[in-house]
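Hi support team,

I submitted a single chain yesterday and got back a structure, but I'm not sure I'm reading the token output correctly. Could someone confirm the output below corresponds to the sequence I sent? I've pasted both exactly as they appear in my results page.

Thanks,
R.
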Amino acid sequence: IRDVERSRGLGDVYKRQVYCRGSNTYVRSLMSLHRFLLFCMRRIFIVHYRYVSLFFIGFLIRFLPDLIVWPWLIGWDTPEYVAVLRDYLVSPSFHTYTKWYDGHIFLPPILYLVLYPFSLIVDPWWIFKIIPSILHGLQGIAFFYMLEKGFKFDLRKCYLASLIYLFYPMSLRISWGLLRNSLGNALLFFTIGRLESTKTWRDKWLFILAIIAGLSHQTTAGLLAIIFLIHSILYLIKKKLRDALGYILLFVIESIFLII
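Hi R., thanks for writing in. Yes, this is the structure output for that exact sequence:
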């Protein structure tokens, strides 16, 4: 019995030694794997494929609910978008005047202009099973672009903030049925990023983005009008009249989009 106990005691000692040595090796291996994964994530996802990865993350987040309820639509307003696009097939026009719920209204045209060629091939019902996920992924790209190019944030902070935005309940709520808002948000982020990166109203891409964004949703037009008005006031204070007039011009354009 003593020999058995003695052998057990020696076995416990050896096990502890082996375990301690193994645990140190195991910890070092885990740390090495952790550093490798961080390196891969930083180099592959954040540096080289940051826009692609953000788009697919946003797309998958939004598309999973659509898969679960297939073939039905998600969102209170989404059937109205389908109806408007089907009406658009009958009488396409630049500024969409159509029935929305119980009344007639002018709708911002950009979303319907973009989707019109696809509606000639695919029924709008199936288009609006896919387009909300695409718009949500586009918002992730636009948010990252605004932080990286416009505000010059660190890439990791930009990526983390974009992921938070994609998973944020309010962003997801907008993507459920407020599709013109989703497009407007994405174009708003792109416009702000371009504005902050170029620091001038003379940039042609800023003008193009501002016009397209203003025609995407009234809220976007209103926010851009406020932003351009603030810039014009700041340049008037600095006595830079030409720059102030340029931003006033952009303010007037956005105000027109807001009114009509």
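A quick pointer for reading it: DSSP finds eleven helices and two strands in the chain. Let us know if anything else looks off.

Best,
Support desk
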